[in-house]
Amino acid sequence: MAKYPDAPEDFFCELFRELNAACSAPLDPATELADTVDNPDQARTAFRRTKASAFMGEVALLEFMERAHAVMADLGGDPLANRYFILTEAFLTKYSLRYDLRRPFSLNPTLPGVFSRLMRDLKDATAQDADLHPLMMEFEDTIRDLRADRSAGKIKSCIQKQVNLLEAIGQRCPGVTTNTLGQICDQVGTWPHNKVKDAMKELYRFASDYPGIRHGGTPANSLRNIEMRDLVAVSILLAGFSPYLTNLINPDNIYRGS
Predict the structure, then answer these.
(1) What is the pTM of this model?
(2) Cα–Cα dist 78/71, whole Å
(3) Are 171 and 184 in contact (CB under 8 A)?
(4) CB–CB of 152/225 below 8 Å?
(5) CB 106 within 8 A of CB 141
(6) Which three-class secondary structure state does DSSP give residue 99?
(7) Residue 242: which residues within 8 A CB-CB, separation 6 or more?
(8) What angle, 0 to 180 degrees and rounded to 10, lies between the N-to-C axes of helices 228-245 and 194-209?
(9) What is the pLDDT averaged over residues 229-243?
(10) Would you call the peptide bond into 219 cis, given omega within 30 degrees of 0 as the criterion?
(11) Is the Cα dihedral 52, 56, 59, 63 positive or negative?
């Protein structure tokens, strides 16, 4: 951006002023910041030396990027602002990040990004618990094992380990006194409608009734052999219910970041 012909000499001066507002330990506006933004070379150096750890969080960084668009427009008009939009859009496309970009300049969470953040936060939360961590690792190991063997038995193991993980997570939800997933669903008190709760309970019944997932099951109720489409669909469905079963993750942070 700074190499663009329409970029003014004080480009980094105004940009660093906005960047500083996103930092957890910002420079004092009347002293250090004032000295920095009065000198284009000093402002450029300070901007380039700012580390990811300096920001208050993901939301603060997003807000800075959105404010930067207004700075571009003030400094170089539509040509500079549009170049910033195009470069940011190309960056998001290349790295498949969890946001897409809309005009005039709005960074919006994507559905794949929300799901990815859900799984990341769930993994981070279970890593802090000595009992939950092994269950998460066992579930992830069964997913990795599918690369070498996508048999029905391996797929059943994936679903079994995920149900075991959700059951253990649900036991830690405030107010829960039972240890089976079906009964946990009745105690968590987080459902927006009984039909949503019933859907989770029916998935649990499927895992318990289909032969070889959690129990011997009922062979007569099986319509066909389990296959990869079931792994994809059931695993995503089960993961999607996890915010109802635990207070270890923050849904607002999953959508927008923290």
Answers:
(1) 0.83
(2) 11
(3) yes
(4) yes
(5) no
(6) strand
(7) 118, 122, 166, 169, 249
(8) 130
(9) 96
(10) no
(11) negative
Quote the tokens at residue 49.
């030396």
Would you give the DSSP letter of residue 191?
A: -
Q: Tell me, what amino acid is at 157?
A: S
Radius of gyration of the CA atoms of the chain, in A: 25
Query: What count of residues does the chain have?
Result: 258
Q: How far apart are CA 175 and CA 157, in angstroms?
A: 30
Residue 96 has a pLDDT of: 76
DSSP SS3 for 42: helix
Type of residue at 164: N
Cα–Cα distance, 25 to 44 (Å, whole number): 19
For residue 211, cis peptide bond before it (omega within 30 degrees of 0): no
Residue whose entry in the numeric block shows the structure tokens 């990027």: 65
157-178 CB burial, b ≥16 within 10 A, e <16? bbbbbbbbbbbbbbbbbeebee
Alpha helices in the chain (DSSP H): 11-21, 32-37, 40-49, 58-95, 111-127, 132-145, 152-171, 181-187, 194-209, 228-245, 251-256
Tokens of 164: 């075991």
**Burial zone of 229 (CB within 10 Å; 0-12 exposed, 13-18 middle, 19+ buried):** exposed
At 112-154, the pLDDT tens digits run 999 999 999 999 999 999 999 999 999 999 999 999 999 999 9
Under 8 Å between Cβ of 211 and 217: yes
Residue from 104, 62, 57 nearest 84 by CA: 104
Q: How far apart are CA 236 and CA 233, in angstroms?
A: 5
